[in-house]
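Case study.
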Amino acid sequence: MSHSENAAPSNKLVRALIYTVLIFFVIYYLLPLYVMLVNSVKTLEDIRTGNLMALPKLLTFQPWRDAWSNAQIGVEATGLKPYFANSLMIVVPAVALSTITGALNGYVLTKYRFPGADIVFGMLLLSCFIPFQIVLIPAARILGLIGWSGTIQGLILIHFVYGIGFSTLFFRNYYAAFPTELIRAAQIDGASFFQIFRRILLPSSGPIIVVTVIWQFTNQWNDFLFGASFSGYTSTPITVALNNLVNSSTGVKEYNVHFAGAVLAALPTLIVYIVSGRYFVRGLMAGAVKG
Amino acid sequence: MKDTLQNWLPRLVVAPTFLLVVLFVYGFILYTGYLSMTDSRMLPSYGFIGLENYTKLFNLRHWNIALVNLAIFGVLYIGICSALGLFLAILLDQKIRAEGFIRPIYLYPMALSFIVTGTAWKWFLDPGIGLEHTMHVWGWTSFQFNWIKDRDYAIYTVVMAAVWQSSGFVMAMFLAGLRGVDSDIIKAAQIDGASGVTIYRRIIIPLMRPVFLSAFVVLAHLAIKVYDLVIALTGGGPGQATELPATFMYSYTFARNQMGVGASSAIIMLVMVFSIVIPYVYSELRQGQSK
Amino acid sequence: MAFTTALKTTVSALALSAFATTAMAEDVEVLHWWTSGSEAEALGVLKDDLGSKGVGWNDMPVAGGSGVEAMTVLRARVVGGDAPTAAQMLGFDIKDWAESTGQLANLDAVAAEEGWDDVVPAPLQDFSKFDGHWIAAPVNVHSTNWVWINKKALDQAGGKVPESWDELVVVLDKMKENGITPIAHGGQPWQDGTVFEAVVLGMGTDFYNSAIIELDPEALGGPQMVEVFDRMSKLRSYVDDNFSGRDWNLASTMVINGDAGMQFMGDWAKGEFLKAEQVPGEDFVCARFPGTQGEVLFNSDQFVMFDQGDASDAQMLMASAVMDPKFQSAFNIVKGSVPARTDVSGDGFDACGQKGIGDFAEANEAGSLFGSLAHGHAQPTAIKNAFFDVITAQFNGDYDSQTAAEELVNAVEAAK
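After joint prediction, the assembly is written out as follows.
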């Protein structure tokens, strides 16, 4: 972080300009969030008559309570609460699984190069980039065959499988920079495959684990397509429930509740980003991007 | 005996996930490829009709609109995101005091799902309630901003929302890249009397090549896959003004009961994605070997 | 004391859960897209009714207008061999599902017992039966060729409900002069299509039949179709610039608030007016689209049962509950539609509802009852969407009327 000290312009005017531009973009990035937040604490009447940017005339948290536990989603007025739990039950294991396998794959693909390793990695990497719509029908068939249609396990499997590619990419790039001599030395000392992984690689994998977890968590939490296609009445994730809430085909649109719901659904990923954003950049630096 | 196990273990570790990916990605692609040559309508059926679906596809005005839109969207989205990301990263790299505060703000949109982003921007851009209305309320009555309702401009609103969502992430990638630049090179240049701008133009930005490449690949595949955003923002409208291949594919496969045509459009999308990504994967592999 | 209470609670909880597991065997999982307040409330009537008969309700809502998303989910579930017990479906979708899966449960037993053949009108039966067997229980009949007019705006524009195209243009011009948006419209393909089919019907029932039902290329590309598109352009000139993507219920709100004069929309729009405490005849007027008096374009929501072994008792019970006259009456009063049975009394329905019931019976007698194109009761999905493509493109100014008519012939041909 020290290299730019001399590149930093000393001119006060230039610095003022830089700050102005940065602040302008702070506003640009915050505006939609502001709109969502401010309208989620207004009364419906206030939204209808007032304007989007104005502060609420009457502050109310009822929309938040409604969105969480009262809003009508389908026939039952359960709010988003149960779906929030479903999402957690799907995403947490799926993230854990795809991160662990990504780490193992990265380890093998960089430190134990076997014939065809490049092809294996190439195929895993390519799988990051397929448009998911094309796998819906065959994936439904497979889930049906193993009896996991409409279940939490089914969704975990799907998220896990389509998360392998990115995890492997992240860990492979990170481990590629890890000195192979250390591994060889440990092997000579008689350490086994898993011992090396656990004792030598894992302890120094902090940054890349953070990147992978953030990436997978965000993608899987925000997934709509798989959730909509493969969930049953006991496994519906929050994005699908939010869509049911926001896009109800008819009736009065309770915008304040919709916005409260949207913020609620986004909360976990937002928190993850805000809390670990710092590590995210550090992790990217360490491997995901080769600078 | 133990040695053989240790030899085979790495492959055994990679094998299960690799097989899963082979089935869930490549197997399904083959299946979709086959579907694209059948007379499937509502559900998969197996009457072989050769390339008829492809001729049908390219005769559809709808599909051509989608391709043109993808070209406009892709170029602008990738171009603006990269430029803005680099620009903001350079500004943030000037020893900004509030960096820890600003960076997460730039980054957080990536945490939101496209559904939420689309809904928020739809509101914000709607002339009746959003920005235009607000300006009118504030007294600037001649202010006009109705791009989202104008079929010639609506595609640009999709670009705006998408750039908002991803540019912070690209910024983070560049920031990571900038932080990785060897400070000795810069010191040497400064001793030679190069100005700050020259150092960036001649030395640092050229060093960012790999970051540009990673950013390009991430953005390009998002551009081709973008689906939820369009659905939430414009629903493909006005008319078909913001239809993209991903929305086209979904609607033909699942809403219009023309699964064969939908499958053929998926294959075309896949060819597009792969023609961008395979050279990248290839270069990743070459780099891996050189290490 | 506290202990005994705790014990009692535990025991009753155990008893309850034991009951719940036995009830599980009788549960129905229902896939539908009725997620809005009033719709869900209407469906709640059905849920409670089944509950009282020991049939549990597992709700599987998938929001999204006219069930596009719901059909995607259904496809994934059926391909996965995990079909829900029952699903809401529209028109040609029922035929398509019956034909391509052969998995829809046969409801003949309950239909025969309750005499559905006698009380469900023939055009509906056409969609509820496949190969002569009952496979669906119709919940309601919607009709799409309605106009909803703000009474005050109408009074200021002469006070007479327009009955022909020319009268309509006069009223619309007056409304424009009076400074309101004459037509509240939402630019979504199905809404464009809803207006389109009413305009086509306004050209005569024969024309609707040959162009929309029989897809006669001469009607599709002929001078009358050019005239239809000219009329669409004319209507477009009365719509505000902010129409694109607007939900239909927001358009209804414009009429309710007096910002707009009228809306062309199916009878579900009435629910919005009633919710805003508007009184038919006093605050708003419901009329048939000018030139389509006594003629009805219909669509009908039905429940199909997926065959899980034989149609189970729970499925039969559910089908029977759907067809219960009391439920049909209660549901349709809330939903704005008309009962699918002809023997349900009009008591409890408001003026518009009673007019709807009357029109439906009359049109059925006179042979001027047709399936709605925009709502999947005239053509299969692929062709319906081919229509939408051209209609929407023309309405947004991509084609002139002549080109649109030519494109319509091509598009329909390509989708066949």
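Observations recorded in class. Chain C has a mean pLDDT of 86. The radius of gyration of chain C is 23 Å. We will return to this complex in the next lecture.
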